[in-house]
Amino acid sequence: MRCNYMEKVRVRFAPSPTGELHIGGARTALFNWLFARNRGGSLVLRVDDTDRQRSSRQYLDSIIESMRWLGLDWDEGPLVGGPFAPYVQSERLPIYRQEAEKLLQKGMAYPCFCTAEALAEQKEKFRRMGQPPRYTGNCRNLSEMERELQKAEGRSYVLRLLTPGDGETIVDDIIRGRVSFENRYIDDFIIIRSDGLPTYNFTSTVDDHKMEITHVIRAEEHLSNTPRQLLIAGRLGYDTPLYAHVPMILAPDHSKLSKRHGATAVSEYREMGILPEALVNYLALLGWSPGDDREIVDIEEMTRLFSLERVSKNPAIYDLKKLTWINGHYLRELHIDKVTAYAVPFLAKSGLISAEPGADEEKRLQTVIDLVRDRVKNLCEVADACNYFFIDHFPYDEQGIKEHFQKEGAGEVLKEIAAALEEVEPFEVENIKSALKQLSKKMGLKMAQVNLPLRLAVTGRTMGPDLFEIIALLGKEKVTERLYRACERFCS
RNA sequence: GGCCCCGUAGUCUACCGGUUAGGACACCAGGCUUUCAACCUGGAGGAAGGGGUUCGACUCCCCUCGGGGUCACCA
Q: Are A424 and A475 within 8 A, CB to CB?
């Protein structure tokens, strides 16, 4: 193991473009990013696309898009290049071939001609006998002549690593401490498939070495694979990086997070109106703790405070409730310019505004969003909560209609309110408020008896932001118009 | 099944041999208010079980139980 406390830290995030960036991957990326930034090191983005069937360019694009949205940039990798290019594994095949050749030369790897069917059959046999499935090393001791013969016959083959079969391999994990694995449980696994493409354990080991990675920070599901990688590294004479296996994120039913548990992709959260600041904050707290009682930590603060020693060992269960709470917090605490910018696509999608609002519209938009932001949980709700500022034909709350419009004298009250408001000049919050107070007094009604029907007539809802602010913003004309309209429609 | 990791309230966590076991989400009650939120105050709820070690264990060791991961020509 090399001593790397003096050298510059280099970490990597190596997603496989076989799906979108999910919550777990995003957190792994975040931890890598935080560690690199905290230590003034570099983050490498590497694309693990050796599964040619399932990998696609679209997924890569969406992963990149999600990382950008979260604010996680990388120093080397796709789009930015770097000294160890290429960063896409399917473009590094000659490198793996060369390393595999070295192993072959040293007799540390060998060709195996067993067919997939034969191996499956063998595995099934072991399973029936209640034994752990393993490769028995059929092709391990083939002579050079037999190998040549098989190849001459045109039989396809894979390359397997010659594993020691005894002794133990130690993973010195930063988060988990010393973990030892007995080598007798590790059989001769495949490093190059029959189509010539290398497997994950092999590419990962070769690239981590070639790219001079100092710390491998990844999900715990890779812990059991680490001794295999260490074995490869040992046979190739590589120094090995330090490892940190972060705990898994589990679904509420304690199983591995998957689509059936609802939203798992970062892009889905974006569409649900979650703010990137909130998702980053929530994800960071899932498995890492700043060491004190704070729950709201922005990314700069996290960067300052982050350390792998403070990452917990136990798996975390994913809980939307807390994310929702954090999102609400950022929604009302972030600068209004920022929230407005985030909200625009949502309002546009709902058909309330154009996708590129002009300066005047933008100003009004800010005022409106500022009014509704502290009573909603996400950007979709922002769009919904302020519809009446932009359209006249909004729906009315059914229950509200029954309670406030369809009872004796309701129409009269609405007309009185309209008449009173018509007199208000200038049409500003304080004036509106006192005019309505006077009216309620005159009619012998409680404030609520005036406000509730008024709110319903003007917004279609029984709840919402400060009524007087809404009225002032809407303007006299619209307000009185809506009052009369409600009267005609519901109070006949 | 073998191997590996993990085990503080429903959930995320603090503590790293001596605390009335702290905070947050969620939950319940109250307050504030023109409504609903937000916000404030209060409340209920926790060391998986059993053995050790120790003057003293949530904390260290062992066993049991529980959860997860892995054992692919997926990553």
A: no
